[in-house]
Amino acid sequence: MLRLLKYTKKKDWLFALLAIGFIVVQVWLDLKMPDYMNIITQIAQGKSHMGGEAYKLSDIWGNGGKMLLCALGSMASSVVTSFFVVNVAADFSARIRENLYVKVQSFSNNEISKFSTASLITRSTNDVQQVQTLITMGLQLMIKAPITAVWAIVKIAGKQWQWSAAVAIAVGFMLTAIIIIISLVVQKFKKIQKLTDDLNRVTRENLTGIRVIRAYNAENYQKDKFEGINEDMTKTQLFTGRVMAFIGPIMSMVMNGIALAIYWIGADLINKATIMEFPTLFGDMVVYMAYGMQIIASFMMLAMMFMIAPRSLVSAKRINEVLSTEISIKDGNGVSKTDIQGTVEFKNVSFRYPDGQSNVLQNISFKVNKGETVAFIGSTGCGKTSLVNLITRFYDATSGEVLVDGYNVRDYKKDELSRKIGYVSQKAVLFSGDIQSNINFGDNDADISAIEKAISISQSEEFVKLQKNGLEAHVAQGGQNFSGGQKQRLSIARALARKAEIFIFDDTFSALDYKTDKILRNALKTKMKDSTCIIVAQRIGTIIDADQIFVIDNGEIVGHGTHKELLNTCDTYKEIAQSQLSEEELKNA
What we know:
Rossmann fold, ABC transporter transmembrane region fold, alpha/beta
C-alpha cells in the first residue's frame, strides 16, 4: 500500500491534514462531554465541585447546553472530515485507475500474456475500489481511534486502578480475538480476488463465445464450469463472512462486560467509601463509564479496519504487480526524418517468444523497397505472423535487426513507428460507435474525402450505402451487427485512411470471397501504388501477382521470387500451389 502513495498529490496531503485537524476537534468535543456529565451528576446530588455550594437549576441547563453544543460541533466536524476524506479517496482512486490504464496500454504482447484480460479488468475496477474503501475508512477510523483511545486513557489516568485494570483486560481480550480472526481470513481474501478474476474470465468467455456454445450444445458444460468457480467463491466468502461475524458479538460482549465491570467495581468502592467520598466516587464512576466506552469504541473502530484492511492490502499488492511490471519494449530516442520511405529490411533476424524453448524465426534476411507488394506464405504456425509482428514492434527480435526506412525499429518512438504503418490484424476488430469513427480511428485525422476513398478501395462502399445512416450507422461492440467479411473490409478501410507508408495485411483477405479479394487487391495496386504492401496469406490467389513472394517453413525462408519462379524453384511453394490450383490454372499462371 505504501508503494501506491507515490501517486498522491499535494492537494491529497493538504486535504488529509485538514481531515486530521477536524478529527482532533471531533475527538476533543467527544471527550469534553463526560466532563459536563460529571458536573451535572454532582449537581443532581446537590453538591458543587466548587466549595460545596449548591447549584441552581440553571446550572444544569447551562452544562446540558454545553454538552449539546459539543455534540453538534462533533457532528459538524465529522461531516467536514468526510468531505475531505471522500475527495482524497476518489481523486486517488481515479489517478490509480488512470495509471493502470496507461500502463496496460504501454504493455507489449509479452507483458499482456502475463496477466489475463479478466485479471486486468478486476485489478482496474474491483481492486481499486477496495483500496478506495480502505482510504475512506482508514483516514477516519485509523486516525480517530488511536487519538481517542490515548486521549481517553490520559483523561482517566490517576483514578481508581481497579477500573483501569478492567478496561485493560477487556482491550487485551478484544485484540487477541481480532488477531486470531484476521490470521484465519487473510489468505482467504487473496483467494477471493483470484476467484474474482476467474469468474470474470468465465463470464467473458461465455458472452463472447455464445454462438459457439449454442452451436455445440455446450450450455451445460459452460454452466458447470461457471458453477464450479461460483461455488468455490461462495464457500470462500461464506467462510470469511462467518469468521468475521464473530467480531460483532465479541465487541458487544466486551462493551457490555466492561460496563458491568465498571458498575460492579464502582458499587464495591462506593459501598466501602465514607459519606464524604461518595459523591466524588459516584461522579468518577459515571465519567469512567463514558471514557471506558470511548476506549472500547476506539478499538471497535480498529476492528472494523482489520475487517477491511486485509482484502484491501491484497488488492493494493495486485495493483502494484501491474504498475511495477517492467516494459520490455521501450521507446527509442526518436527518428526525426528519414531520407528514404516505405522500405522494410530484415538482417539475420531470429526470434523466440519469451517463454519459448526454441526460435520461431531463424536467420531471416530480406528487403522490401518502396511501392513493392511483398507476400509471405507458408503452413499454419510457420512464423508468418510472428515476422510481421516484429515490424510493428509487438515483439522485439531476439537477434538481428529490423529496419524501417533505414533505421532500426528500436530507434523509433512507438508513435513515430505506428504513423508509418497501416496494420490490419488477422481478427477484424471494430469498436462501438459508428462507421466513420471506426475508419477515422486513432490519430488518422482523415477528412471525409479520405474516408470515402478508403471505403471505396476496401470494397465497403456497397454495404455502407445500404446502412440507414451511412457513415453514421451504429457499430455494436465488437462489430457484432456486421458479417465477418464486412468487418474485415472496414478494418482495411481504417488502415487505408491512415495514409501510411507501409501497409501490413496479416491474413486479412481470408474472410473475403475470391471476387472481392481480387477487386480489392487490384484497387490497392492502382490507387495505393506509392505505398509498400506486406501481405501474409494462406491462399495462392491472394499473392499470385505480388512483386516478391517469400515462402516460410519452420521459421526459415525456403523460397523467394515471383509466382512463376517459385513454381520451378521451390518444392514447398509448388505443393501449396498444387493443393489450391488446378492443373490448368498452374499452366496459365
